Amino acid sequence: PRHLGGRLLARPPALTCPALPSRFKISKIIVVGDLSVGKTCLINRFCKDTFDKNYKATIGVDFEMERFEVLGVPFSLQLWDTAGQERFKCIASTYYRGAQAIVIVFDVNNVASLAHTRQWLADALKENDPSNVILFLVGSKKDLSPPAQYSLMERDAIKVAKEMQAEYWAVSSLTGENVREFFFRVASLTFESSVLAELEKSSARKIGDIVRIHSTDSDLYLTAQRRKSKCCL
Ligand SMILES: Nc1nc2c(ncn2[C@@H]2O[C@H](COP(=O)(O)OP(=O)(O)OP(=O)(O)O)[C@@H](O)[C@H]2O)c(=O)[nH]1
Ligand SMILES: [Mg+2]
């Protein structure tokens, strides 16, 4: 996927492109969590396929745009990489509003960073509608965690994720483990919720956008059979 990014100093870019008629083309994703847990590295691994072992604190907020195609429909994720450092939190939190998904990152080798995820979530939810936002809890730096130690941490992380009603993912930006899979999951869930929101709006205007196509189970079976025989030729 291609990306487009930069540091945001002033106004965030417009969330919808006027050339694109549909409203579900771009989803805003915010990435929050303690300083140095690996938020920037996670985004850079996915968007640029790079990894920097030196820590460079994010100042305020950065963003990247990733383009996808979901079921043939162009769809973009606008990834907002926020600063974990306390002194930048105030600037970063002004960008929380209007998120379709909140990604809360902690370091699987740092118990305190997991404990702090509840506060990060609470702060992000202040600016968003809790019933309309998809949550992900991401354990980072899995490569640094010996398996026995990791499984202890995973138990706690799954518990926290359940309480938050978030999906739990463990990743490593150093090795790339699970990074693509994670963002593809974010893209599919946010795409799905955008389509549902769009359908709800349109059915509020008029019932009839959803047309039932008559097909019986046996028709479906026949279609599958036909496809199968074609590919075997
Ligand atoms: N071994 C290992 N190190 C990682 C991984 N991800 C990040 N790091 C290291 O952790 C440090 C912090 O990473 P960043 O991505 O800058 O952390 P951040 O969450 O963006 O920090 P702030 O911008 O201050 O909020 C860097 O030195 C990275 O190289 C990982 O998956 N494995
Ligand atoms: Mg950062």
Mean pLDDT: 85
Question: Helix count?
Answer: 7
- What share of residues are in beta strands? 15-25%
**Biggest β-sheet: strands ordered side by side in the sheet:** 1-3-4-2-5-6-7
Give me the count of strands.
Answer: 7
Query: What would CATH call the class?
Result: Alpha Beta
Content-based structural category: alpha/beta
Q: Compute the CA-based radius of gyration.
A: 20 Å
CATH topological fold name: Rossmann fold
State the separation between the terminal residues, measured CA to CA: 34 Å
Helix content: 40-55%
What do we call the CATH homologous superfamily? P-loop containing nucleotide triphosphate hydrolases
Give the tally of structural domains.
Answer: 1
Largest sheet: 7 strands, mixed
Report the CATH architecture.
3-Layer(aba) Sandwich
Shape call: globular
Textual characterization of the structure:
This protein is of the alpha/beta class and 233 residues long. It has a single domain (2-227), classed as Rossmann fold (3-Layer(aba) Sandwich). Helices cover 40% and strands 21% of the residues. It contains seven helices and seven strands. The chain has helices spanning 39-48, 86-93, 111-115, 117-126, 147-164, 179-205, 217-232; strands spanning 3-7, 26-32, 61-70, 73-82, 101-107, 134-140, 167-170. The longest helix has 27 residues, at 179-205. The radius of gyration is 20 Å and the shape is globular. The protein starts with a strand and ends with a helix. Magnesium ion (MG) binds at residues 39-40, 58, 81. Magnesium ion binds next to helix 1. Interacts with RILP. The GTP-bound form interacts with REP15. Its cofactor is Mg(2+). It catalyses: GTP + H2O = GDP + phosphate + H(+). It is a lipid-anchor. InterPro entries: P-loop_NTPase, Rab, Small_GTP-bd, Small_GTPase.
